[in-house]
Amino acid sequence: MKMNVKMMAAAMAVLGAVSCSKSDMYDPAQVEENKKAQEEAKIEQAKTDYEANFVEKYGEVDPNQSWDFSTGTPTISLPSSSAKAGTRAGGYERKNSSDYYEFSAATINKMKEVFVEGHDNRSLGTSFAMNAPKNAFYIMPMYMGQSAGNFELYMHVEGIAEDIKVWSKWDDLEVKPKADSDWKNVKAHNSGSNCVGVAAIRSKYYKFSGLPENAVMHFYLKITETASGYNEKNQILTSMSGYMRSFDFAKKDKDGNIVGTEGLPTGLKGIDEELENPEVMIIGVEDATTSRSDHDYNDVVFMIYGEPYVPQTFKVEEFETTYSKRYMIEDLGSTDDFDFNDIVVDVQETFTQKRTTDEQGLETWSDPVLKGQKAFLRHRGGILPFELTIGNKNLGKMDGVLSDDPNTEFEVAGWNRNSNNISIKVYQGTDSQTANQVNFPKDGAIPMIIATDTNVAWSAERVAFNWKELMGIPE
Predict the structure, then answer these.
(1) Residue 413 per-residue DSSP state
(2) For residues 397 and 415, what is the distance between their CA atoms, to the nearest angstrom?
(3) Cα–Cα distance, 94 to 166 (Å, whole number)
(4) Are 310 and 136 in contact (CB under 8 A)?
(5) Which of 74, 237, 231 is nearest to 147 (CA)?
(6) Are 269 and 98 in contact (CB under 8 A)?
(7) Taking a C-beta distance cutoff of 8 angstroms, is the pair 4, 335 a contact?
(8) How many helices and strands in the chain, by DSSP H and E?
(9) pTM of the predicted model, to two decimals?
(10) Which DSSP helix (H) or strand (E) runs through 188?
């Protein structure tokens, strides 16, 4: 960034303030000491100007204002060595139905036999991932047992850039409390017991087609509102980590015959009426993550049916959980733009967990083990040299560049995502040994570093970063 008028004036003032005799001019040590004093004074003046300009633009900072805007939501995936790669990458198509499908009493009863209310149903199967079929398939919310809080269902598919939000709690799910009642949204009926004890249930389908064939995929529930004592906001409950179980209503054997037709739904909407024997499966989800969980997997149940195949499940023996943050940094090259793009670095840490069993033979998971930490220098937007330290790893002195996206990867260690132990030294020039030390700001301080999720874009040059938008406050 370019030096502004205020900083030039400050530098000139310092030159006048630092006295030196004629003999000082020929004393290298004294010259260096004078230069250092000038640079230190310039840094202090720049800090003063930066803080004053920040307050002038945004107002006084709330003493409780945190500068960590990240949600803490992790990414859960298979280890790269065990993932079954798809045959092609690409996009997908989605179609939401306008008509409801009413589940028969036989289908609902069969689901209740599988996912028995209040019963530990872990023995029904194991944690799983899936491979996407080449044909289209349909997803319908089918049932919600007793569940508080709020959540959303997502589908992660390798080869698709963004995870797919499939459904939000209570959407497109209606019930009849009694046989002669009118249909009403399940939330309007009862947002606690939901579908428990109702006379009839109906919902709409979501059709997905064009997914990369054989791509590894999995479903997960994202907690968006805490159910006190049962889970926490932003937790990710996946099919790979013990929070889902699957059951095949109708699956073909090696001879193409349907196996298990009890309660098999008929007249499914969307698919070709002449299509014979579409595969049908249900997935039950447990939304409690604490010791209060009953593991009945009926907090929400989804039906999936295919044209003709549904995604094929396979057992997961190990999974990885990755936590990431993006740090956007100001370098004081300018004191009034607040674009927070002088240095942008992403930091992540990955933990692994392996499948095991308890004394009753039920599936459990080992404690998380740290696999490693990495940093990625995503962007440079300032001309001043800098030195990044992440955790206890110093990444060395680097040149400033007015605008580039190096995406350089570094191995780091000792990073604490809760305390944000990241710091930067910004030097006053290529040959300067005087640096401005910048640490992650305390609550209520004027920030020179902010933290966000890694999907938050940095600003263009000299365009102030709209951090208030991350708080839901209009600019």
Answers:
(1) B
(2) 19
(3) 10
(4) no
(5) 231
(6) no
(7) yes
(8) 4, 29
(9) 0.86
(10) helix 186-189
Q: Which two tokens stand for residue 233?
A: 């906001």
Instruction: State the residue for tokens 């300018």.
Output: 334
308: cis peptide before it, omega within 30°? Answer: yes
Token representation of residue 429: 């020039």
Half-sphere exposure (CA, 13 Å, Cβ side) for 248? Answer: 17
pLDDT for residue 90: 63
Structure tokens that stand for 188 in this block: 């309007």
Average pLDDT across the chain, whole number: 89
User: What residues contact residue 269 under an 8 Å CB cut-off, 6+ apart?
Assistant: 97, 99, 101, 205
What is the C-alpha to C-alpha distance for residues 345 and 458, in angstroms, rounded to an integer?
11
Strands 408-412 and 369-382: antiparallel
> Is residue 108 within 8 Å of residue 143, measured between CB atoms?
yes
Please tell me the total number of residues recorded for the chain in this structure: 475
- Check residues 83 and 438 and name the one with the higher pLDDT: 438
| Per-residue confidence (pLDDT) for residue 24, from 0 to 100 | 54
Q: Spell out a b/e string for 129-143, using b for 16 or more CB atoms within 10 Å of the CB, else e.
A: bbbbbebbbbbbbbb
What is d(CA 349, CA 389) in angstroms, rounded to the nearest whole number? Answer: 16
